[in-house]
Amino acid sequence: MSNANWLSVSLNVLLMVFLCVASPAVRHKDEAKPLYRQTGSEATITGVVSFFGNKPQRKRIDTSADPLCEQLSGGLYVEDVLVRNGKLANAVVYLKGEPIDSFSFEAPTDTPALTHTKCRYEPRVMGIREGQALTIVSADQTHHNTHPNPRINDEWNRTQAPGAEPFMVRFKHAELFIPFKDNQHPWERAYVGVFSHPFFAVSQRNGSYRISGVPPGRYTLVAWHERFGEQSTEITITSNEMKKLDLSFESSAK
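-> structure tokens emitted (254 positions)
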């Protein structure tokens, strides 16, 4: 056998050995994660998101491009920072960690809505699950446009005329956080977090949040805000624990 033929046979043998060794790992990677079954030892995390520092000045929005918006809203302001009595709304609090990365979770059956109302998005910040139906609603008697700008999921762009029926969309992949805009009204902004698990919450107007049904284990708890960025802390959750964890963001705005 010539050296060239011997080398070719040797490479083929090595390739077959590699595939035999690697294929179980490849198959394992492609297998679906097991569905998590509640054990009765799940915990709950609650807390309040506070705000410290100088509250940014509210900015009035010029809606003269669509006079109906001024009539509907009585005057719009940028809503990227909502603070009441020192408590911050629209902060997304969520978990990361091996105890939830190892499982899949039952698909939700509800269909949350992202609504154009009084020429703004409501809610401004929200979380959904990958594959979950999201209803897009236009509640105003004017044209609205919905245009998310994802990095991983498919981008789309759709306009609704006055009186148009709502429509539903789904995002196939987990992605944090997808900005939404309205090409018809460029001041309209929203953010949608798409999660692979149900362990997330958005702080309310009083700053409170609640995450239930958490399997015991070690996690990274992350808090994200569109204006103030992201912060994280390592936590350990024990069986049936009611864990209280307050968070805060700070601004240096003058």
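The domain at 43-251 is CATH 2.60.40.420 (Immunoglobulin-like).
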